[in-house]
Amino acid sequence: MSPAPPAAAAPDTAVSSRTRARRRSSRIPYALLLPALLGLAFLVLPLAGLLIRAPWSSLPGQLSSTEVWEALRLSLICATAATALSLLVGVPLAWLLARTDFPGRRFIRALVTLPLVLPPVVGGVALLLVLGRNGIIGRWLDSAFGITLPFHTSGVVLAEAFVAMPFLVISVEGALRAADPRYEEAAATLGASRLTAFRRVTLPLIAPGIGAGAVLAWARALGEFGATITFAGNFPGQTQTMPLAVYLAMESDPEAAIALSLVLLVVSITVLAGLRDRWMSTP
């Protein structure tokens, strides 16, 4: 007796139904197309205007000036130092939030992420109140050790670390939550201390998250403006970073401001391209 045709045709029917559903879901909803294009234009046109109005003929001369290279050198040094400081204290902080349970952990996490939404100028004022010459801690540092942090290169590093560290903490905490804690438990059963397990097991597991967080923190520190100018001032060769140089150049030499902005734009695109596989990949 021959098999019934409908039973054989059932899989084909299911496949065709899934195909039709996929085609329907991939159709562009025209009611959303116009606002989506407007949003894209709003984000892209200012960058395109920067490229169109760039003084390409005089760009080499603009970028070869001593002031530009001094600001760029200071920006790279301070952003790297701020990232190193963020790594030194941010990775242990992320481990504390991800691996331990203590009263007030949600409140501590909210405080850690507060600089993400806090206006940078407010962060600079807060740093002055704590670390300034008459601040809560700054007064003691000045009288006991003669250390003055505001309006100094070290103040730039602290201001940039203040606004950049949350990016690192969030990235590392997410990597720690995704990592399987059983590897650390297995290391502990073999006699490894918590510090040894963290150094030999946990850090290699979350290395990609640490790297991504460090790059994001570095890029955020490189572009910091508000907290830096409030806490460290704008002194050429000492505290004037690239964003501050752009702000100052806009008042006297707009072409130089555009040239400096192009440098920061190239750096930002490079960072996004480096993190594309981790943050922008589609499943």
Keywords:
single chain; about 280 residues
Word description of this protein:
It is a single chain. 78% of the residues lie in helices and 0% in strands. It has 15 helices and no strands. The protein has 283 residues and is an all-alpha fold.
Short description:
It contains 15 helices and no strands.
List the helices and strands and how they pair.
Elements: H1 5-26, H2 30-52, H3 59-63, H4 66-99, H5 105-117, H6 120-131, H7 138-145, H8 153-178, H9 182-189, H10 194-205, H11 207-222, H12 226-231, H13 242-252, H14 254-274, H15 276-279
Helix pairs in contact: 4-8, 4-11, 5-8, 8-11, 9-10, 11-14, 13-14
Q: Quote the distance from N terminus to C terminus.
A: 47 Å
Number of helices: 15
Q: How large, in whole angstroms, is the Cα Rg?
A: 26 Å
Which parts are unreliable, with pLDDT below 50 for 5 consecutive residues or more? 279-283
Helix share of residues? over 70%
Proportion in β-strands: under 5%
